[in-house]
Every structure is written in C-alpha cells, then in structure tokens.
Target: Phospho-2-dehydro-3-deoxyheptonate aldolase
Amino acid sequence: MTATVTALSARDLTLIDTSSPARRRSQPLPTPAILRQRLPLKAALAEQIEQQRNSIRAVLDGADRRLLVIVGPCSLHDPVAALEYADRLAELNAQVDDQLLLVMRAYVEKPRTTVGWKGLLYDPHLDGSSDMAEGLALSRRLMLAIAERGLPVATELLQPLAAGYLDDLLSWAAIGARTSESQIHREMVSGLDLPVGFKNGTDGSLAIACDAMRSAAHPHQHFGVDDHGLPALIQTQGNPDTHLVLRGGHAGPNFHSAAVAEAKAALDKQSIEAKLIVDCSHANSGKDPLKQPAVLDSVIDQRLAGDNTLRGVMLEGHLFDGCQPLKAELRYGVSITDGCLGWSATEQALSKVAARLRSA
Ligand SMILES: O=C[C@H](O)[C@H](O)COP(=O)(O)O
Ligand SMILES: C=C(OP(=O)(O)O)C(=O)O
Model:
C-alpha cells in the first residue's frame, strides 16, 4: 500500500479525480524535497546559518551582550529592492556588529486581518494570479541570496505546510500575533531547530504567548506532511529557544517600562525566563512607521538603566518611508503592506543605538 502511494508522481496526482467540492479546486505544487533539490543550500552556507542561529541564541540567553536587531521590510515584494536593502544592511552590519546583531526580515507570508495580498510566496506577480509554485521558488531564491550576503534571515512562519520549503535558510522566525494561540503553530515550532519569537496577541494578551512557549518547549506528535508531500505523523523534540515579542495591542503599546515589568511578571508566573524582544512597529508605534526610532530609544534607555532582559528589537524598514497601495504603478523601495521606516532614518537610528551602547 505504502509502495503504491509513494510511487505516485506529481503527474499521476493531477490525473486522480479527487471529486473536489464545488468551492475548492486544487493544483499540485512541487514538494519541499524537490524545491530544496532545485535550489540547494550548500554546505558552507548551511554552516554559516548554523553559526548565526547559535549567535542569536547567545544574545537571547544573555551570554553575548549585543542587541539583536531584526530589521527589514514588512513584506518582500520586489526582489531587486529586497536585495538592495540586503546590500545596505550588510554594509551597515560591518560598522555596528560589535554592538548589534543584525538580522534581515525576509517576510514572504502576510497574515491579514481580513483579506489582502498575502505575500510573495502566495502571489509573486502581485496580480492575484497566485502563482504559488513560482512564489515558493522566488522566496527560496531570495532567502538564499540574502544569506549569501552574510546576513541571518528572519521570517514569519504563517502556513505550517510552507515551513518545510524554507526553514533550512532561517536563523530566526516569528509566530505572529494572530497565530501565537494556535496549537498547530506551537507544534510546528516544537520541531524547529532555530530560535523562534512568539508575539503577544493583537488584543495585547501576554498569556497566549507564554502558553505558546511552554507548549513549543514540549515534544509533540502531530499530523503533518513530510518533505515528499505525503501525510505523516510528525514527532517533535521540543524547542528550548523561544521568547516573547512585545508588539503592543488594541489597548496601546507595551514597550514602556511598566508594560515590560508586566510582561516579566507574566513570564515569571509560568516559570519562563524573560528574554524580551520589542517590536518597535505595529501597535507599539500606533502603525506610524516614523515613530519607531522613538520606541527604539525608549528600549535602549531601559537597557542602559539596567534592564538586561531586553535582548532585542524589531523594526519594519524599507528603502523609503511609508507604504503604498498595491496597484499597477508601484514606487520603487516602498512597502505595499505596513508602513516602513526608510533606509536613511533606519541607518541613522541603528548607528545611534550602536554608539550609545558602545559608550555605555
Ligand atoms: O505586519 C503586517 C500587518 O500588520 C498584518 O499583516 C495585518 O495587516 P492588515 O491588517 O493590513 O490585513
Ligand atoms: C504581521 C506582523 O506582525 P504582528 O503579527 O505583530 O501583527 C509582522 O511582523 O509582519
């Protein structure tokens, strides 16, 4: 029976009448194994990524006193602009890496409050054609290119079925505010060999992220698909490298010292060590990207005042300030999802942080 199933090729699968319900149609995609084979991760780059994961772990554990900075576009939509951003970030990295551990946001999946463009992985031509086979390949190519520039790659893992196409390239991942409470995401994290941040809920709830960390630290047995696209019982070992990302909530920001103290108390209640990342964007900036440097400054003030549980920050930055609606004529280097801080303000803000930390 197993032999029959595993012998089916992608072409055979297209010939099977799956009697799709009227509201659903399906189209085969390459499996994770096939995509990884087509766009392989070479041994030297795999070694670099392993070292970068360890460096991030060391910062989060407090063994390395640098500040983790996860920075980059809200979403990647234009490969040329994404790589220009990566080149600039790699250049900045050379000047600040004594104080900051820079990681580039390479977000190819976007969770939507209702509907909207769901990211490069889903719709790489930005026109609703949903060429997901190309989206998967392009996402992998871009992440490889960013990693080849020496930068650690971060992304949000939104669709667990998509993780297997990309997770070997990641040094850090987020579970977003809309999915931290999901058992399926917690199970997935439990099987990932990389540091993962759980965001507080969109309503500001810390408890769901604390529960998520405890769940993801455990081994799980769960339903999934293997690298060859076949249904599988997945058995995970538990992930010890998770942490809380404070992103604010409906009631307002949660980066001020009182909110940070509240987060630490919530973690302490569940006996989880506090290793905090503050997302300077989203509800912490009231969705005004230009307010991110002020949030960043406040985090650095708290760190310099002695709070060494603040181990990292996240910033949404692109080549130019703001955002634009997704339409035919797009401005180069401007986000098509949440507003971002432009490169010059980002560079200035991060250079200032490095200088402040250096002279502390
Ligand atoms: O960071 C991105 C957005 O805040 C998130 O994807 C939700 O976006 P939306 O509210 O525009 O759908
Ligand atoms: C969607 C994001 O964040 P959050 O889950 O906090 O809304 C993001 O960082 O792109």
Observations:
- The radius of gyration is 20 Å.
- Residues 74, 107, 111, 156, 176-178, 199, 247, 279, 282 surround phosphoenolpyruvate (ligand 2) (CB under 6 Å).
- The chain has a mean pLDDT of 95.
